[in-house]
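for the recovery benchmark. tokens below, seq after
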């Protein structure tokens, strides 16, 4: 793999992560319009991404939710339960 191919793959991954983060932010705001939040980790998988959203800074550890963001823009995001996300990610290490 040449330098150009490597750079191209990183650029595609970066754009995908930004898009997933934006879409998860929009979904979170639609579901919880009164909560302040900030975006956390974005994990890119083959057909979808998982985005962590942190909210309620008065809690320790901060409250968080996870959003499944499909790769296709025409599909909607869905909030994942802790059990569902635990199958995909090691959530115990995200603090």
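predicted aa per position
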């Amino acid at each position: 793999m040449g330098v150009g191919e490597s750079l191209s793959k990183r650029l595609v991954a970066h754009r995908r992560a930004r898009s997933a983060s934006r879409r998860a932010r929009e979904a979170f705001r639609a579901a919880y319009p009164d909560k302040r939040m900030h975006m956390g980790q974005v994990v890119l998988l083959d057909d979808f991404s998982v985005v962590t959203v942190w909210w309620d800074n008065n809690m320790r550890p901060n409250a968080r939710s996870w959003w499944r963001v499909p790769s296709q823009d025409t599909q909607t995001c869905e909030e994942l339960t802790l059990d569902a996300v635990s199958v995909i990610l090691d959530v115990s290490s995200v603090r």
